[in-house]
Amino acid sequence: MNLPTAVSRRDAILLALSGVVAGTSSSRADDYPSRPVKIVAPFGAGGPTDVYTRSIAEELHKALNQPFVIEDHPGAGTTIGTDLVAHAAPDGYMLLMAGSTQCVNDTLYAHKSYELLRDLVPIAPLMESDLVLVVHPSVPAKTVAELLALARAKPGTINFGSSGPGSNYHMSAELLKTLTGIDIVHVPYKGSTGMRTDIASGQIQMLFDSVPTMAPLIKAGYVRALGTSGLKPSPILPGVPTIAETVPGFQSTLWVGFMAPKATPQPIVDKLNAAITAILSRPGLKDAWEAQGATAFTMSQPEFAAFMAAQVEKWAKVIKTNHIALIN
Q1: What would the pLDDT profile of 229-249 be if each residue is shown by its tens digit?
Q2: Measured distance CA(36)–CA(32) in Å, rounded
Q3: What is the CATH number of domain 36-129+254-321?
Q4: Which of 84, 101, 249, 273 could bridge 124 with an S-S bond, Cβ 3.0-4.6 Å?
């Protein structure tokens, strides 16, 4: 006789509890952030990623009424800073700047205490910037097609520089190898300065580098630009075609975005994505960044998560195809 009443009471209790949980989740987003937020930058100070990260941190401070403080934690190819955030409290108060380097490292580093998409959640992209493929003027190739023909005629004789294994500059050349089958030799440097000095002097024959950095050397005649790495020509290098025009499927940009520890509440993730997207959608900001060679990069949170998963898969395939030695 009392069974329906007992069931009704149980249902009422469950309904009340679900409301409390939903209310707690909602209030977390409503109250967030209630104190300063740390943004871990594992790339080091002074580079292009650092510049744009500091710019967005200032805008997030204005939009969300709490400081967003940059903390530089470089080292071990970004794995030190990434590891720090992967094991942080999932409360939205420690975020990570992540990009293609971390997507490469998910495969390249054999022993890490984290996996990128298992232990961290993508929030929103920030910016991307094209790279440019350049050769020393002594190289008898004025187009990407001519460079490929030269590499096939003389396999193993063209050296390309990079700022180190797994860097954007290294992996862009490895992607070119994967898509074309050419045999070129990697010369890794400890940072970017050495590779730039040696390409200008002719000690190495080719490399990929950021468009804004190489533009002055191209205009001064120290290097010759053959192609850019995005899907559209760079406004900073008029007349330079994309590599994809010659090598279908080639795309390798320097990009960066935000991540957080995996269990960060979804309402907080969504709030950050909305705030970042709104900032990046401002015409004035977009125009200013494009004049510097960077594109404001916006996606929904699920789109960015799918994008990062595809990036991890893409670079894992390149590493496997080219038998790139893993880093222990």
Answers
A1: 999 999 999 999 999 999 999
A2: 10
A3: 3.40.190.150
A4: 273
